[in-house]
Amino acid sequence: MAKELPLVSILIVNWNGKKHLKEALGSIKRITHKNYEVIIVDQGSNDGSVSYIKKRHPYVKLVEIKENLGFAGGNNVGVKYARGKYILFLNNDTKLEPDFLTYLVGAIAEKGVGVVQPKILFYDGAEIQSTGSFLTKSGFLFHRGYGAPRDSYNEPDYIFSANGSSMLVRRALIERIGLFDEDFFAYFEESDFCWRAWNAGYKVKYEPRAVVYHKGGQTSKALANDFVQFHSFKNRLCSILKNSRGVQLVYMPIVNFIFSEAASIAFLLSARFKNFWAVQRAIFWNILNISKTLEKRKRLDVKSGEWQDYMKRVVFINPSFDYYYYLFFDLKKYEEAKKI
After folding, report:
1. Which of the ends of the chain has fewer CB neighbours closer than 10 A, N or C?
2. What was the pLDDT predicted at 1?
3. For residue range 10-27, what is the model confidence (pLDDT) as tens digits?
4. Measured distance CA(182)–CA(13) in Å, rounded
């Protein structure tokens, strides 16, 4: 029976995540979709991750690389070892419901769907962490459902971007448009990928029956906050310059620049000087690398005309201005205030 199911390659990038792997791999063993392989790309861990995987989980296809290439680079290495029709990109700090993969595979079988995201709950299961993200006119993302009760958002829907902590992708889509932009290292790389997928004529879908629990922010905790801010602002603006089309290309970079500068001023006024400088460096990086970005833009696979109009109707949300305040300071409070 398992041989009749499509093979799914479960790809996990690991960097000093040994403390998470027991629960993650244990939950994978309990899934009902039994035709899968597990690939772990270890990026120079020094916490005993490699010896733990070899000793306790010998079935895992372990790929060892000496340096930390980030989420983008690590997954780009790992996908070369994947044999599946579908690739599940999964963070190491997750735990899956047994029927999780069954529902995702069912959803991605729909014609035209290239990426599927499950309902992502916080690890205690009480609240939603993500039901997908939508694009705004500023280029910032609208993160739908963050902090909402777990029993909400129960209808399948199309979304702009899946969350990289858990998303199922067609191999055929990766072969067509490539995977993650390695200039991104970390942050916004999955949204950039989903934007390219939409532009190429594929849909990104949210499947609420598939449920995963995610601790979240475990890698970010080990990184300096200004490092996180630099890559977030840098990658977002770069993706806008690569992927926006038509009138978007006229207004979105400008609006994003204004909002980014407003955020940097807020950092400055609150004496977070490293974060202020991180935003300035992010903008400057895009100026220095504009030729490279435009070359990437030329190589993109883009479906034009009616599809672009349809995509805009599906993936855009324009929240009230206070959303941006909560986005930077406490997104949960926005959910509580608006009851969205």
Report:
1. N
2. 45
3. 999 999 999 999 999 999
4. 14
Domain 2-221, CATH: 3.90.550.10
Q: Which tokens hold the place of 82?
A: 């994947």
pTM of the model: 0.94
CB 28 within 8 A of CB 39: no
> What single-letter amino acid sits at 333?
K
Q: Which residues contact 13 (CB under 8 A, 6 or more apart)?
A: 40, 41, 43, 71, 74, 75, 78, 91, 92
E strand intervals along the chain: 8-14, 36-43, 61-65, 86-90, 94-96, 113-122, 128-130, 133-135, 141-143, 157-158, 166-170, 203-214
| pLDDT range class, residue 298, cuts 50, 70, 90 | very high
Rounded-to-integer distance, Cα 263 and Cα 236, Å: 14
The ranges assigned to domains in the chain are: 2-221
